[in-house]
Amino acid sequence: MRILSAEETAALLPYPVLAESIARVLADHARGQITAPERLVVPLAGGATLLLMPAADPTITVTKLVTVHPQQHPSVRAEVWVMRTDTGERLALLEGSVVTARRTAAVSLLAAQALAPNPSGPLLILGAGTQGKSHLEAFQEGLGTDKVYVYSRSFEHAEALASYARQRRMLAQAISALEPALHEASLIVCATTSQTPLLFKVPPGGFIAAVGAYRPDMAEVAPQVVRQARVYVDTLEGACSEAGDLLQAQVDWNQVKPLEIALQQPRPTDGPVLFKSVGHALWDLAAARLAVQRLGMQ
């Protein structure tokens, strides 16, 4: 069994190829070839939580183990176990936080490739943490994005991510107010842990990938923006129970389309378009498939 470091895990999961792997997983899931039950959440002493996220196809099986201990540093630890479906042989142990960061950004990239009315325009990122950074990388590598605005409640953090973007030869600017960038950006990523909405306006042809809010009591996108947008989600089952942005806007779920179906339809010609992602073990399976393939184990 290979035990992979964070750096080794990242090297196995380039964003454009990972997005393609996710698309194949969605197609296989639609054909009934993948099993992926809801995640199991186990409360632990002291307010901590254990999460187990399994998925299996005929060749490999994965389980992501995540522990959340709010008082510890780091507060979140995760690993992805990869094994052969037919024998149970352990093949690899991937660094879980890297898998989560990269597969989440790759899902957003796939959605933008399929759904953004103007995928070549400038990017606005709300949030300068791990997900902000991974989305910046993914959109540059997968869409050719070369201009980015970064907004954070900490201007210092926004400038740090903008500086990183400039090191990657992007035109990048940290901003302290959203309004000017909203007139130019055609791609928007919301990647914060805000409890209350931050995005109250969106350009008519804009594409929003909202990935930060993961509980019903959290929302990054204001209800009025949600209601004026075409709404897509990574999976309906996850969004219906966890997507606070949509739940608080009281969306008509009959009008919300999962990515699995959206990939089979023409690109929207106008917007705004909102893609809401809350995560799923399917994306971990896609990452594991790619990793074992690149390791020569499949």
UniProtKB/TrEMBL annotation:
Its EC number is 1.5.1.49. Coiled coil: none annotated. Pfam families: OCD_Mu_crystall. It is an enzyme of class 1 (oxidoreductase). The keyword Transmembrane does not apply. It comes from the Bacteria. Signal peptide: none annotated. Keywords: Oxidoreductase. GO terms for molecular function: oxidoreductase activity. InterPro entries: NAD(P)-bd_dom_sf, ODC_Mu_crystall, ODC_N. This is Delta(1)-pyrroline-2-carboxylate reductase 1. It comes from Meiothermus hypogaeus.
